[in-house]
Amino acid sequence: MRMYLKCALQWVLAIALIQVALYYWAVNRKGHQHKHTTRPSPGPHPYIMSMRNHADGTCSYDTCPKVKEGVFNVHLVPHSHIDVGWLKSVDEYYTGKGDGDYGNTLYAGCVQCILNSTIQELIKNPERTFIFAEMKYFARFWEESSQQLRDTILQLIRERRLEIVNGGWVMSDAGITMYNDIIDQHTLGFDFIREHLGACAQTRTGWHVDQFGHSSEHASIFAQMGYDALFVGRISDSDKAKRKSMKDLEMVWMTSQKNLGSRSALFTHVTFDGYYAPQGYVLENLKENAFRKPGILRNFLVTLENRAMHYKTNHLLVPMGSDFGYRNPELWFKNMDDAIHLTKAGRKQNVNLIYSTPSCYAYHVYQEMLAHRKRQESLPEGARNPPLFSTKLDDFLPYVTDVVWTGFYTTRGGLKRHIWQAGQILQSCKQLAIFSGLKGTFQRVNTLRDAMAVMQHHDAITGTQKKAVLANYNQLLSNATEKCEQVMADVYKTLWGKDIIKQIETPEFCPRLNISSCDVSEEADEFLVTVYNHLSWSVQLPLRMPVEPAKYFVYDKDKKLITHQVVPVPEGIQSIPERPLASAPTELTFMASVPPLSISSFLVKTDVEERKVQEPELLNEVDAEIVIENEHLSLTFNQRSGLLVSITNKASKLKIDISQDFAYYNPSSRNEGAYVFMAGTNPATLMRKGRPVAIKVIRGDVVQEVHQSFDQSVTQVVRLYKDSAFAEFHWTVGRLNLDNSFSGVDVVSQFKSTLDNGKIFYTDSNGRDMIKRTRDSWQMIPDFKISGNYFPVTSRIFIRDEAKRIQLTLFPDRPQGGTSLVQGSVELMVHRRSYTDDGLGMQEPLNDLGSDREGIIYTGKHYLLLDTMERSSLAVRHKAWETQLAPTVMFTEIKQNQDLHKALEQYNFLNPDTIPKNVHLMTLDRILENDTALLLIRLEHALERDDISELNKESTLHLENLFQPFDIVSAEETTLGGNFNPQEVERLEWVSEKGVAPKYIGFPDFKAKMVPPFSVTLTNMAIRTFRVKIAYNEGFPS
Ligand SMILES: [Zn+2]
């Protein structure tokens, strides 16, 4: 494969061609200097849904059930709440097999039975409806269905009797998922729908009935995908009570008012009481003809009328379902048929019961809103009432009922970390499969796409599943990751060529590097370390791998020796029982500088004759200060206490006093578990119980480290790498068998500084917008003063001293719960263990034991940035991405070293200076297996409107020549989900105090016909999505 570099001449040619605006230039051009190995055909892309021009016009809301004017319309919404893994595994829930109590519907599961029998019931009466959300299961059901059944399904969908809601692979958690993973998992579902179910199935309605709180970012994603409405099931009790009393359970949610304005508006409905049918009316638990018994129907209608009093319009949505309900759909439907017909025939003519769907309900509510607006507009200006619905600006987190649902932010940090690592690999794998043009990669990459999508389910990444299911999720991820390991190894081998392949073993990941275990680096005398940076900017990455004590030589691409250091493996890591006993006691570390979208390899050689280990410094002066420092930062520790005491940022010339320690909370009166965190009102107890922390110091040319030992459960290494502006806190926390008199324990890392942030701190929403949090801001129940101030820290948390213009930011390497409980402090919860179940359905304590059955140990990192508010803005964004989407590292053993220069070469896939610094290449993905020229690209702006940075401005780039291996020859912009032409989605124009939701979701400069060089302008926090056709340049694919 030959690297292709663009020359200035081609740019001149490209610009000349724009001037004549030849839309089909890309496919018809002559005399262009590139030779394309494949040529796409012109014409519109067949893969974008049209909402307007469907042959029989059945996609519109016209197919909704008719309602009656002037009466109270009850929309019965039959549904089954499905979990893609929870008490049983993903597979077991589909087939209905597996261990568990079959008398209990939660165990019975059986999604295929539910779908099969429900579809048969729908056929029997043309009024019946049903909604379904999980495309992971629907896709499998479809695959296993006969053509006849498929035809029936399509017919039901066309008639809007079977309605897809959400449209994603799973019903994603909203608290701690990352925005890119949310978008990806919906895109996967949309792709299935597009390919098999057709335009009418392509949903624009969110059905988030079981998530433990709701984030503004997830809702914003729905708005940007063109959704009209979102239905949520769980908001805090105090909020709900207030809303009920004010008829305020429906609102227009401005999900990202500060960045996207009214484009982010989304009508949001809070269900009256979760997603179950009203109490006593789970109809498959009743007998046939239940409503014909005296009083039953009357009581049902009374229940409904009581509910209706809390909503503003003449419509009421009633979820008619349960967890894995519709095992016996005949009973559900026969009874509902009865209720409908008996009501019609009865005396209560002011009630109209109908089968309906969430989107039809929203549509009818919208009609009432329009009528209200019309009435207001006919009044003189001063006499008008405000819009029918209130405006919501913040989010629905945390979720507080009689317990506080903030434990799952941290629960099972091992799975959470595993998901992030798999996400990093997926990103690399997708890109390299495309850049290399290798055949036969699609299905292997797809296995990991599928697994990552499943992990976004609200009982997966949350950690709220049974132990056996946890093991199954981890297995799914590992198996899928191995497929991408093969893909990436194939890519590297292809790039390096036959001569190299003879000299090497197959490149592999070391998935257990977190516990400093890696066969290749520990056993091979010579090996390659290969880094792929899938980010669109250069990164400086500290690499670290276990090695036997010896003298090492590390070479870069120019065969130059680079600085390295061999340091002892931290004691905490060495004591992790999952780490093989014979593992190497030392680690080799060096800095890798990797350009954007490029592969860089390093050669490591060892001289086993010379045993070389760096011993810790001898510390003798009591009370002395210990300082570790690099070009950017200096960290001072008190030798007596062993604790951090201050941090100085040299460039910004600022210094703060700051301490860091580990502490734990014990639950109050109520039992804890996977979902809930129930700290009492007492502050956390220090893990070291007042004892000093034992420390060791190691200094070298690559890294300076302070090793701290707090007690038998907690150790930490604080590191400053060469040239890094971030301090690294590498914690190892485990066992936690502290005090069995409590039902559980929650361990936190606490940073306490002299910064004055008042009560304000900021946490990210699914990794995107930063949300301003105010301590004790909502109606706080005194017992919940600690737990109730916890928020999801999916990727970062910061506090600001506005007067001094200083910002302190912390980044976890997986989602965690976090807060600022006292002025100047920030804390992140790192680990939890409980001996009880919290009684919320999991029916198991959160008590993972690890391989020695003593209590599992987790290890992870926090990164700290202390800088001015101005300098923090872009640095924070980049660090958040570099942490969640860290470059991928592979290790290759060298069998014989003759000439390795092809393997050490740097391979660049991005043309230099094409992507501005404030833009992130979020998605580069293939869409269809049989069309290698069709790709999905998403670009996003990094900064928010209120970020203080010189790069806080719009950026323009050209798609055409971004990448070295191929040119983009045609491009079409879509909505965020990649499935709609933005011009063809007509949204409902919800009215709020902040304005009217625009009818079209497209960006103001949207172009129906894009012409080369396909310029794209990104404003603050915009994500723009394109379906493009590419043509590989000469030499590609290899
Ligand atoms: Zn659920």
Compose a concise summary of this entry:
The chain has 1038 residues and is of the alpha+beta class. The protein contains 22 helices and 44 strands. It starts with 7 loop residues before the first helix and ends in a 6-residue tail after the last strand.
Low-confidence runs (pLDDT<50, min 5 residues)? 1-47, 49-58
Largest sheet: 9 strands, antiparallel
Helix content: 10-25%
Alpha-carbon distance between the termini?
5 Å
Overall pLDDT score: 91
Task: Give the tags.
single chain; 1038 residues; alpha+beta; nine-stranded antiparallel β-sheet; 24% helix; disulfide bond; metal ion binding; metal-binding
What does this protein structure show overall?
- With 1038 residues, this protein is of the alpha+beta class.
- The chain is built from 22 helices and 44 strands.
- Strands 17, 18, 19, 20, 21, 26, 29, 32 and 33 form a nine-stranded antiparallel sheet that branches.
- The termini are close together.
- It binds zinc ion (ZN).
- Zinc ion is lined by residues 81, 83, 210, 458-459.
- Belongs to the glycosyl hydrolase 38 family.
- Keywords: Disulfide bond, Glycoprotein, Glycosidase, Hydrolase, Metal-binding, Zinc.
